[in-house]
Design a protein that fits this description.
By secondary structure, the protein is α+β, with helices and mostly antiparallel strands. It contains five helices and 21 strands.
Length: 407
């Protein structure tokens, strides 16, 4: 018994030593590459565990995001003119086709094509020689027959006096009276012929009937022209002043008439390069009928056209002042947003908190909008950065357009 118990601990230690030796032998059998892989995997596991531990510790100390930056503007209260936009056509108040009133050879053109001319300015000269000769002949005939008429009138007086003295017969007196009247009539006819000859002579010099701009010379000097030919010599178009014609729907007729009565019906034509950027003129014509086909009515406005930017036949954009809003609430156009329930704007209070305000759009001029809603002059509205804004949250002012930080 004592011998067995003595050897029992020695056997246990021997087993442990054998297992340890076996593990060492197994590790030695692993290749160096596999050893490095196992070491790297162990290191990666340690890094992942450390990351999760650190992230968990930092999660409780994360800072909230800063308020989104926005641009702002101040609400104003101004008088607003409501404009209606349409396409207009430039029309000339007068267009004249210049024709010859006498037949002859066209000698001279006194102007250049496209030149501005005034009423009475010479345009063409038709060979005056034949008409000058005809006038001289008519004058000579007139002078001869006037002398004959005067002689017959004197004879008439003598025979009347002789008949009163019973020194001649009634027949002779009557013949003298008839001869005098015939001579006077012939002289009157000659006078008319002389007048016609003089008028025809003046027609050889063709002058401008209106102020306007000349077109191309259709018949050049050297050609034989006839009276009332099929082709005019030139066409003159009045361009100063000039009219602009446009049509508006008949449902605006009441507003149009009210504006016309008040003297506030104005036509505005954008004109790039003009001193003010546009040309403005009062409407001076409203048609007397509404078109049954289109349901529109024609209006016209007369423009001075000093720089001749408006050309007959040209199509132009036109705005017409059809109404006014006194003391309208005005915000920049960029401040107005459109949602499922209509238009709205974001306002910013003194605490930099955002509020959503529903508004009704009254007028949009492309830059500013007149609106109706629970806002007033001096309120601050957001013009840029609305996509990052939520009603009830705070914002930071990046830059102001028309206003600074809410006060």
């Amino acid at each position: 018994m004592s011998t067995a118990s003595h050897f029992e601990p020695s056997l246990t230690e021997a087993k442990k030593a054998a297992r340890k030796a076996a593990r060492k032998v197994g590790l030695r059998k692993l290749s160096p590459r596999l050893k490095w892989i196992l070491i790297a995997a162990g290191g990666l596991i340690l890094v992942v565990i450390a990351w999760h531990v650190i992230a968990g510790l930092l999660a409780g100390h994360k800072k909230p995001p800063p308020p989104p930056p926005v641009s702002i503007a101040t609400v104003n209260k101004v008088d607003v003119t409501i404009l209606d936009h349409t396409i207009a056509t430039v029309v000339s108040p007068a267009t004249v086709q210049v024709d010859a009133q006498v037949t002859g050879i066209l000698k001279t053109a006194y102007f250049q094509e496209g030149q501005l001319v005034h009423k009475g300015d010479p345009l063409f000269l038709i060979d005056p020689a034949p008409y000058q000769n005809a006038f001289v002949q008519a004058q000579s005939t007139l002078a001869k027959d006037q002398a004959t008429a005067q002689s017959d009138i004197n004879d008439e007086k003598r025979y009347i006096a002789l008949y009163a003295l019973n020194a001649t017969s009634q027949q002779m007196r009557d013949q003298a009276v008839a001869a005098a009247k015939s001579a006077v009539a012939q002289a009157d006819a000659d006078q008319a012929a002389a007048n016609i000859a003089a008028e025809n002579l003046t027609y050889t010099k063709i002058v401008s009937p209106i102020d306007g701009k000349t077109g191309p010379i259709v018949i050049q000097p050297g050609n034989l022209i006839t009276v009332a030919g099929a082709t005019p010599l030139v066409t003159i178009t009045q361009v100063q002043p000039i009219k602009v014609s446009f049509f508006l729907p008949q449902n605006l007729l009441t507003q149009i008439q009210n504006q016309m009565t008040a003297g506030k019906l104005l036509a505005i034509v954008p004109m790039p390069g003009a001193p003010s950027g546009n040309e403005t003129a009062p409407v001076d014509f409203i048609s007397n009928t509404v078109s049954a086909t289109t349901g529109t009515i024609e209006l016209r406005a007369t423009f001075a056209n000093d720089d001749m930017r408006l050309v007959p036949g040209q199509s132009v954009n036109l705005a017409i002042t059809i109404n006014q809003i006194a003391g309208a609430t005005v915000v920049p156009r960029d401040a107005v947003n459109v949602g499922p329930n209509g238009s709205y704007i974001y306002t910013v209070d003194k605490a930099m908190v955002v509020h959503q305000i529903n508004v009704q759009l009254l007028n949009d001029d492309g830059a500013n909008d007149a609106v109706k809603g629970n806002i007033k002059a001096g309120d601050v509205v957001i013009t840029q950065g609305q996509l990052a804004v939520v009603a009830g949250s705070k914002v930071s002012i990046q830059n102001g357009k028309g206003g600074g930080k809410p006060s």
